[in-house]
Specification:
Structural class: alpha/beta
Helix content: 40-55%
Distance between the termini: 47 Å
Mean pLDDT: 92
Low-confidence stretches: none
């Protein structure tokens, strides 16, 4: 048993060091950003029932782009923001909003930005996304960065499951997060053809990869607002684990083995009292704390990333128990291959 655990902690530590090295290599200075032209660019903001924080985000003025909110009811918006009535029938309402908007709005061969309502859009985000497209990317995306500290920030910014770390580790289809993306006409055609599915961002990345279209990370998207409750976080990240299981089933077992291994290995080392194992666990904690500090650009981040691993491990187990049944926006659905959605019981 101790031999197996020692091997496990060694592999997990080596994996962390590789992630750190590849992230540092990916952040080395490169070519200067390409100039951007916002003229004719469409900014789509899908939302169903906007919260006060989201209404503030939606009303933030963005110069040079056509800002359109897609919602079933008109939210309180300033005069610079347009509203397109949209009430899709798809199970994935965000995807439905977008496909409906793209079927009736004129894009004129120009890029389209798609940003969730909980993201604060500013000039830096718009320019970063458009610059990646101008540099040759077909799709550019920004990694979400919660502004408030807590377990969500620990998971999305500091841990191995942060999108910047995942992007550095990826070798095939990119781990796109759909919080803030920019698409050129080729990527828009792929988005229009997506089936009704959970995890439309991963399905989009898979199809773009199949067509040899380029996907690039373009900085960070700030997500303001108070941290969600524990129940909301469990439900959200359980769905993320179900998305992973549906879209990348071979990667699903890596969550407890690599991405959320620290709590289990630290507990095993403490219970067994083996000196080599304790040293190995200490090395793993040190490696992950270093990665967290580099990703966060701040030292002393132990609590957040360690708590994030505990949350991720619990949500992985929850997804394993739930199987293909997912609860989303109060509805129970079945998730099939590549995230295809149907009502529970197999009804479309």
């Amino acid at each position: 048993m101790i031999t197996f655990l020692a091997l496990w902690v060694t592999v997990a530590t080596f994996f962390t060091v590789i992630a750190l090295a590849r992230f540092l290599a990916s952040t080395a200075p490169g070519a200067p950003r390409a100039d951007v032209n916002r003229q004719g660019v469409l900014l789509l903001r899908p939302v169903d029932a906007a919260t006060p924080d989201e209404l503030e985000n939606l009303s933030t003025p963005i110069s040079g782009v056509t800002h359109v909110v897609l919602a079933p009811f008109r939210p309180r918006l300033n005069d610079a923001v347009q509203w397109l009535p949209s009430d899709p029938l798809q199970h994935n309402r965000k995807l439905g909003h977008l496909q409906y908007a793209l079927s009736i709005l004129e894009t004129s061969g120009r890029p389209v930005l798609v940003v969730d309502a909980d993201v604060r859009v500013d000039d830096a985000l718009v320019d970063a996304l458009l610059s990646e497209l101008a540099s040759g990317a077909d799709l550019a995306w920004a990694a979400p960065r919660p502004i408030e500290r807590g377990v969500t920030r620990g998971l999305l910014v500091q841990s191995l499951h942060s999108f910047k770390a995942l992007d550095a580790l990826s070798g095939g289809a990119k781990p796109v997060c759909g919080k803030a993306i920019a698409l050129n006409p080729r990527a828009l055609e792929v988005l229009r053809s997506l089936p009704d599915c959970l995890g439309e961002d991963l399905e989009l990345a898979r199809k773009l990869h199949q067509q040899n279209l380029k996907v690039s990370l373009a900085g960070e998207a700030n997500v303001p607002g108070a941290p969600a409750s524990l129940n909301v976080l469990i439900a959200r990240f359980t769905r993320w684990m179900q998305v992973l299981k549906a879209h990348r089933p071979l990667l699903f077992p890596t969550i407890p083995l690599l991405f959320a291994a620290t709590p289990m290995l630290a507990l095993a080392a403490a219970l067994l009292g083996s000196t080599p194992l304790l040293l190995g666990a200490l090395g793993l904690v040190s490696a992950r704390a270093t990665l967290a500090a580099v990703l966060e650009r701040r030292a002393f981040t132990f609590g957040a990333w360690f708590g994030a691993e505990l949350l991720l491990l619990f949500c992985w187990l929850n997804a394993l128990v739930l199987g293909s049944k997912v609860t989303w926006r109060g509805r129970v659905m079945e998730v099939g291959v590549h995230g295809r959605l149907s009502r529970a019981g197999g009804v479309p």
